[in-house]
Every structure is written in C-alpha cells, then in structure tokens.
Amino acid sequence: xxxxxxxxxxxxxxxxxxxxxxxxxxxxxxxxxxxxxxxxxxxxxxxxxxxxxxxxxxxxxxxxxxxxxxxxxxxxxxxxxxxxxxxxxxxxxxxxxxxxxxxxxxxxxxxxxxxxxxxxxxxxxxxxxxxxxxxxxxxxxxxxxxxxxxxxxxxxxxxxxxxxxxxxxxxxxxxxxxxxxxxxxxxxxxxxxxxxxxxxxxxxxxxxxxxxxxxxxxxxxxxxxxxxxxxxxxxxxxxxxxxxxxxxxxxxxxxxxxxxxxxxxxxxxxxx
Amino acid sequence: xxxxxxxxxxxxxxxxxxxxxxxxxxxxxxxxxxxxxxxxxxxxxxxxxxxxxxxxxxxxxxxxx
Lengths: 272, 65
Hints:
The complex is a heterodimer. Chain A is mainly α. Chain A has helices at 13-22, 26-30, 34-54, 82-92, 106-132, 143-151, 155-159, 163-183, 195-201, 206-215, 227-258, 263-267.
C-alpha cells in the first residue's frame, strides 16, 4: 500500500472501508463525498433488494442443512455487502422449513445480490483511495483497471499496458475455467448444486456470469466421472483471479499516488 | 480414476497456481517468467513430500488391512 501524509487525507481510510463494507456509500458520506455516497447506497442496496425480492429471499436455502449458519454465509459474494446480507438473514433466514418450489426468477435474483456484494468491494477500494487523496492524483484512477480486472481476467493488466501479463492471466484463468466446466459437464454453473464452488468461480467476473447465463440450466442424465476435478478447476480460476486483482490494484495505486508532484518523495512508497 | 490422471490434473492446476503467484510476487514479467521453473519444482516437490508423509501415516496408523 502506498502511504500518504495525514494532512493530504480526507479521513481514515480504514474507517471508510469498514463503513462502506457495512453500508454501501457510508464510507463516502464519512469522507464528505455526498453524491457518490448516495448513488452507491441507492444503487447497491437497490440491487441487493431486487435480488432478494426476485429470489423470494431464499438464496441461502441452497446451502446444505448441516452448513446453514450465519458464519457460513460469510463465504458468499453477498458478504461484500455485509449490512444487506445480515438484513437478508434476519428477514428470510434459510428459507422455508418445508420443500417449496423456487421463485421463477430465483437465478436472476441471486445473481443480483451476489453482484451487489462484489461491486461493493470495488466501492470499498474506491473509498480507501478517496480517503487518502484530497484531490485527483494520477492520470488514471486505480478503480479503472480494477474494474476491468474484475470484469474480464487479464483486462486490468491490459489497461495498465502490461499486455503480456494480461494475455497470460486471461489464457490461464479462462482456460482453467473452461476445462473445469467441461470436466464438470456444466454442473458447476449452478448455485443450487454447488453453493460454495459457485461462490469461488463467481469471482472470475463476466465470463462466469455469461457461461451461467448461456449454459447454466443443464439437465443431468448420467454420472459425470470428473465432476470433482471440474468443480475444483472452475472455483480455483475465480479464486486465483483475486490474486490478479490485487496485482492490478497494487500497481495502479502506486502509479496514481506517485504521479502527484512531490508527494512520492515526501512520503516514500511501500510496494504492495 | 487412474493415478496418472490424478497426477496430470494436479500438475496442470499447480502450473496455473504457481504462474499466478509468480506474477503477484514479481512486478516485472521477465523475472517472474524466469522464476517459474524453480517455483514449480518447489511447489510440486513440497506437495509430493506432504503426500508421501500422509501416505506413510495412513499406512502406519489408519490401515484397516
């Protein structure tokens, strides 16, 4: 993390991140950024509420009964929007006690709530940067390559001009995901079937979302011999993409803050 | 599933893990790529060691034969 002088800051970056994690936009409001704060609050909370409504509040019912506990849900993308997830648990818990058909748009519903959690993590990163820079600093805000890295593996590196690295990340992670999906015969593209593996592969961004949208409703008629390997590969592709995000964000924030005349020399920098 | 298949699946996944971790650790592409063979060898060797210890322990203490 690049360190900045306290006088240059809008507020404590850690406080801003914690507030944003619990309530989207709260960190920005704490920093005095009212318009972005309100936009994030209504946008991300609205997205979660839409997901909750579409899924009839039953997203966590996909968890196996022996795994149903408040701590288990912390391993889901929804945990990125912690306050909404806790409200979800308080309002709906783990669904009905007797078997009931799921809502017609349950899949779209859990995609919305999971997206809300993931996008709020990006909002937390934005709050952290905003807390440390009173004025716009470098030519490119660190959120731009981070958003690109989340959207498509390797795109964040490409946007930063690190083309070779971007291509390698893209080929490796998309290849691993595609191979995993093929080995699992598409069963990994269903949160109902594999709740936790799905949470991992969701971190791959739009390719995982697109694949689920196109082939997520596969009907199984025979045993899949390598399903365990396929699930592991697809989930690992998403989890390893987090390493790529961190790599992109570390370089992006260093370039952003070091671009400020005089600041880098005055504060010193710490590589990520 | 055959042992060779297991090992093949593991070696492939290990390659992706090691490559991503090398890129995360090294800011420059050149040193990251040059360090891959050493990192891959250490990773696979360490995993083989853990597997060997687990097999020995399983054979000594939890064998049902």
